[in-house]
Task: structure prediction
Amino acid sequence: MATRIRHLLGISGGKDSAALALYLHGRHPELDVEYYTCDTGKELKETYELIDRLESVLGKPIERYHSFEEGKTAIDNPFDHFLASYGHYLPSSISRWCTKKMKLEPFEQHIGDEPTISYVGIRGDEHREGYISKRENIQTLFPFRKNIWSEDVIKLAVKERLDVLKEGLAQQLEGPALEKARSLANAPLGMTFSLKQKANSLIDYNTVAFNHAVHHVLKDTDYPVGKLDNFPLLNNAENLVIDDIYRILEETGVGIPAYYLPATYTVDIDGKEVKGTYARSRSGCFFCFYQQKIEWVWLLEQHPDLFALAKGYEKDGYTWSEESLTDLEKPERVAQIKRDHWTRSQRSSAKGCESWKDQVMQAEGQGCTSCFI
Result:
């Protein structure tokens, strides 16, 4: 009897995970993907609106994973529950207990010991890796990238089991094509040729052959993909970037989450009133500590009630960033943040980074389609 493999995709409320759900639904309906979301209780209303639209288009529910047993305490939402347990120590980039307690742990607890493939919407124009579970029964894949594999799989296939990888290449290629692939696989690693570079050379040479060869390696492991006789993403050779994400959202009718759309602000520059635009660059809690200063100003002006709630969490020396929201909301500070943002935007425009999509990428720390800033 074949082992049952679960296919899971987490919906964060952002553009990339939403587009990935739509992409897999349209391209690979043969995959029985289960959709879930981890509600922190502190999301923007636009997040919940997006999830509702997705459920309608996907034709199946997005399950809500719970991080604590509601009704057991007087606190009625996950964030406040865990904040109390952490002694009001606000999460930060060096202590991301919010992600651990409200996202990762509910996900892994829900899966249990079942072999599971987790699909993550990191784009081909992003330069980062997603969360890789340490549990052997959970394997992460990145369908938007030409390289769909996680770093641990690449290391296993291209370094630790290279001979098995070459066996897999021999099953896919022949003649000069096979000899070229073998030459790339045999190239020695060194200071000027890293493991990642070797993997990329094989992927760029023949993506589909490489994917099938990796699958051959995984057949003798506990990785869930290796337990599948056929897996459609092995034939994936696409590399989707931010424009593709917005296209998918628009073409399916789900639309772009409203908080990504630019809003206009005004600011005095050298005695002249000028206009700029700002928006939110990420999904998640409305008080996310990863927000840039201009995004806090966006929250202050677009959702003053939520800004007030975020400010209310700051006490006893605990703040969302090095600058308290009480200081940030002062008119002179808001004006300075806007001036700084407007000036950076003008420099970006001079480099050809004019679209609001480019601005989102800059806010993500990914640069834009023209440069990296």
User: Anything to note?
Assistant: Residues 331-350 form the longest helix (20 residues). Confidence is low (pLDDT under 50) at residues 366-373. Residues 172 and 209 are 6 Å apart (CA to CA). The longest strand covers residues 263-269.
